[in-house]
Amino acid sequence: MRETLAAVPGETPAAYRPAADGGGAEAGGTARSAVEEKTGRRRNLSYPPAPQPLPVPVLDNHTHLDFRDGLVEVAVRDALDAAEAVGVRGAVQVGCDLESSRFTVAALEAEPRLLGAVAIHPNDAPPLAAAGTLDAALAEIEELAAHPRVRAIGETGLDYFRTHGPGLKDQEYSFRRHIDIAKRLDLALQIHDRDAHDDVVRILAAEGAPPKVVFHCFSGGPELARICNEHGWYMSFAGTATFKNSSGLREALALADPRLVMVETDAPFLTPHPYRGRPNASYMVPYTVRAIAGFLGKDLAQLCQEVARNTESVYGQW
Question: Where does a divalent metal cation 1 bind (predicted)?
């Protein structure tokens, strides 16, 4: 058994622990993440302990294995070994610009536990449009999406938190183009929706949504959950569902059709309670799944079976 598979509940997986004699960032101490540099806030950059394994394996609907956070850089294989050891048997690796989408396709070639999604993130559309390169970027995304293990276009959508003013029209143009690519290639659509619920729904209706739509890191309340139920759109819940200030998310979760519920990390972001603010990884999925089972009063094994089945109904077999 590989060392990274020997996950011990309550201990950080071996691949996520700084080397005792590595020096520099891998030795701990002075490294600061990009998030910390931007905000000026000190963070605990150590990875959390491994959870108890799930009784039935599930899949991480959305992760970014190429994004580094914390004190160590973890290889794709080691990250998936650590996840598999606690009952997360695979993941959807998501590209959100050309570089990360290329990484995604390369990772799919090397790792059978991954399926992929590729796209231009909504917040990247305006600068690309300003540079006159958005259409070329979208053309490359379509080429990358032809890989047989790319099963979704995403993350795409609208983000009104970080983009304002003239850039919004570029976001909408990009979103519409991604919808078209997903439909022509018969792929699922992974949506990034931040503070833009009404317009996301409006554009999906206007363009005609693909048969399989997933609201990644679902952030709406009961009304959006009802709309998703009505249209058969999937809702993927991340660590945010465990946060103390997320009562609206839990109300939505209570209303969501169980056949449309999925789980994700959005790693390395959105680490579930009680480790909020620390680096996230796919091995953390069980914390969110257990919290959801508790909110819903549902048997844990039953919930695991449901979310695994739902995930494969969108992307197919791993």
Answer: 62, 64, 155, 266
Helix axes 76-85, 98-110, angle to 10 degrees: 70
Query: Is position 273 annotated in a ligand binding site?
Result: no
Confirm whether residue 231 is marked as ligand binding: no
Where are the extended beta strands (E) located within 216-309?
Answer: 234-237, 261-263
Domains, the chain, in order of start with CATH, read 57-315 (3.20.20.140)
CA distance 269 to 266: 6
CA 59 – CA 112 distance, rounded (Å): 13
Annotated binding residue 164: no
Separation CA 57–CA 229 (nearest Å): 25
* Residue 172 near residue 206, CB atoms below 8 Å: no
In this structure, of 21-35, 55-69, 107-121, 232-246, the range with the lowest mean pLDDT score is: 21-35
**DSSP H or E run through 77:** helix 76-85
Q: Residue 39 to residues 67, 130, 150, 286: CA-CA distances in angstroms?
A: 18, 27, 34, 29
The reply, when asked if residue 62 is annotated as ligand binding, is yes
Strands (E) across the chain are located at 58-63, 88-94, 114-118, 150-159, 188-194, 213-215, 234-237, 261-263
pTM tops 0.90: yes
Question: Side chain identity at 230, as an amino acid letter?
Answer: E
Alpha helices (H) along 88-158 = 98-110, 125-130, 134-144
Instruction: Say how far apart CA 249 and CA 4 lie, in whole Å.
Output: 33
